[in-house]
Amino acid sequence: MTRVSPDVLRLVDPEATARSIVDGMRRSVRGFRRRGAVLGLSGGIDSSVVAALAARAFGAERVLGVLMPEADSSDDTLALSRLAADAFGIETVLEDITEALTALGCYRRRDEAIARVVPGFGPGWRAKLVLPSVVETEQYRLFSLVARAPDGTERRERLPFDAYLQVVAATNFKQRTRKMLEYHHADRLHYAVLGTPNRLEYDQGFFVKNGDGAADVKPIAHLYKTQVYQLAETLGVPVEIRSRPPTTDTYSLPQTQEEFYFSLPYDRMDLCLYAVDHGISALDTAAAVGLDEAQVERVFADIAAKRRVAAYLHAAPVVFGAPQADDAPEVSGAA
Amino acid sequence: MTEIERDIREFIAENFILDAGSLASDASLTQSGVLDSMGVLELIMFIEQRFAITVPDDHAVPENLDSVERIARYVRDMLDAAADAAAGSDARVA
Question: Stretch B77-92: mean pLDDT, rounded?
């Protein structure tokens, strides 16, 4: 009988793992005929590890870190991003996206939707989306909005479908604007764009399609987040970044990834994902994650449900029949 | 088939782009991939608007919403409870 324990995720030789990834990054980027790499730096563990790997793969002088804070970013985002860049000698460029987001109507569209649920919501208010625990109840996970007024009072309201969609659609401008800038710099430098999802995020669809989900290479998408932390230590990611709790850094109120998306903190979520991938039962997983069998069953069901949603996020555009060269439109003036 | 069940079936078939005949009354909507987290929100919005009832968060469980049959039963129970409450209120007024 196989039981889950934290040991199953431990990288036996993290240096060898790093070398293998670095080799893969070099081969991929060479295959794309690009000369280096661009990535967005968020001050989080994932982008810092990818930055370290990129510096090893291409040399620090061929890596550009793009810093893209906006009005709702945490106070420490910029400092931690620069800390990572400095640790690996990577050049950075600062692109504050607040004005672009304002011009696109990101904040206005979001706040209009919130004000339909919380009348009076506007400047000076803060908000975040939260989900109920999947562990405690069989209830479907319905998003609620937590809004904090300028006087500090908080309200929590379930979001109706149309308001939820508008809040998410407006907020997704953030990830898509960042990706647009990453590709701008990649085109300018003839570099490739690196994506920074870990396995948990990639598998479970914790990304925006054509936003942070877009990239040419995703070097750590096969690693559990627990392993990313282990690799971070090996690669010399500064301790301030390694000790920062994972955050979405997307909404104006601080929001953990468990509140917004995952059922459990990342280390226990990793173990449940490992169990699902290796056909290990809920009973044999329960002790390692500190839950009972029924609770783990609910986490497993949530993993399966998120995979169904992620299938759309991962899908390439559907094409009916193989396009033929003869069908391609003529391009006037093409060489 | 009751009018409630027919309304629910029509909504699910149209909204989730299904062939109307392909939906068994007792089939699990989540297991068959029809209903995801977005779908639950849409379904609740439909129930609240079409039948003029409020679905509290703690009623949003598979027991009430995971098949056409279960949704119809839940709606009937909620409508009956509302009618009983109204009757009680009328009796007190009288």
Answer: 84
The amino acid that residue A48 corresponds to is S
Q: So what's the pLDDT on residue B35?
A: 87
CA distance to partner chain A, nearest, from residue B36 (Å): 7
The residue segments making up the domain with residue B82 are 3-17+26-93
**What pLDDT score does A115 carry?**
95
Q: How many Å lie between the alpha carbon of A309 and the closest alpha carbon of chain B?
A: 8
Rounded distance, CA A210 to CA A154, Å? 33
Indicate which CATH number applies to the domain containing B42: 1.10.1200.10
With an 8 Å Cβ cutoff, are A140 and B40 in contact?
yes
pLDDT at A326 over 60: no
Residue A307 sits at the chain B interface (C-beta within 8 Å): no
Which chain A residue has the Cα nearest residue B42? A161
In tens, the pLDDT along A155-205 reads 999 889 999 999 999 999 999 999 999 999 999 999 999 999 999 999 999
pLDDT band of A333, cuts 50, 70, 90: very low
Residue for token digits 């002790």?
A287
The answer, yes or no, to whether residue A37 has pLDDT greater than 50, is: yes
pTM for the complete prediction?
Answer: 0.89
Asked if the C-beta of B61 comes within 8 angstroms of chain A's C-beta atoms, the answer is yes
Chain B environment of A305 (Cβ under 8 Å):
30, 36-37
Nearest CA in chain A to B30: A305
Q: A191: which 2 tokens?
A: 């570099």
Which pLDDT score, from 0 to 100, does residue A51 have? 98
| Chain A residues in contact with B44 (beta carbon < 8 A) | 142, 161
| Structural domains of chain B, count | 1
Report yes or no: A144 and A160 within 8 Å, Cβ to Cβ. no
Closest CA to A70 of A45, A102, A38, A28: A102
**Rg of chain B, C-alpha, whole Å:** 15
CA distance A171 to B20: 35
Is residue A258 predicted with pLDDT exceeding 80?
no
| Domains annotated on chain A, with CATH | 6-102+166-255 (3.40.50.620), 107-161 (no CATH)
Residues of B in contact with A158 (CB under 8 A): 57
| Closest B-chain CA to A311 | B33
B-interface mutation test, from A129, A131, A133, A140, most B Cβ less than 10 A away: A140
Residue A334 has pLDDT above 50, yes or no: no
Mutate to test the interface with A, among B57, B66, B74 (most CBs of A within 10 A): B57
Residue A228: which of A106, A70, A42, A45 has the closest Cα?
A: A45
